Amino acid sequence: MRYDTDVTFIKNSENSHHDPDLGEWIEDEPDRTTVSANVTDLGTNRSVTLFGSIKQGAKVIRTQPLFVVPKWDTIEINGKTYQLTTERQPLERDTLIVEEVTVDGQK
Question: Is residue 10 within 8 Å of residue 75, measured between CB atoms?
Fold first, then answer.
């Protein structure tokens, strides 16, 4: 199994806040953790089982053994943003099934 794709786990900052003087939301920089992982498209049978249909943009992410997945809100792969659908931990590895999401009107 090749771990040849950069995957970035993004955790939104807890220091983001509303500034009453400016009257706007101040977004603090999120924490980003980038690792190499095995990333493949979700198979047709598994897609039908999870979503009831074939879902475009769904991926399977497999981490290296003994890697501890950080706390995260979204994942970024090749400039696209994903959210968690399901997670498993077979044989001391994390397997995440994620689906592509739209962020700020961009897919």
Answer: yes
Is 89 in contact with 69 (CB distance < 8 Å)? no
> Length of the chain in residues, anyone?
107
The whole-angstrom separation of Cα 86 and Cα 98 is 7
**SS3 of residue 95 by DSSP:** strand
CA nearest to 38, candidates 70, 1, 74? 1
**DSSP-derived 3-state class of residue 50:** helix
- C-alpha span between 62 and 67 (Å, rounded): 10
Cα separation of 89 and 64, whole Å? 11
Q: What is the distance between the terminal CA atoms of the chain, rounded to a whole angstrom?
A: 28
Q: How far apart are CA 22 and CA 3, in angstroms?
A: 45
DSSP state of 45: H
Full-model pTM: 0.77
pLDDT digits (tens, 9 = 90+) for 65-105: 888 899 999 999 999 999 998 898 877 788 999 999 876 65
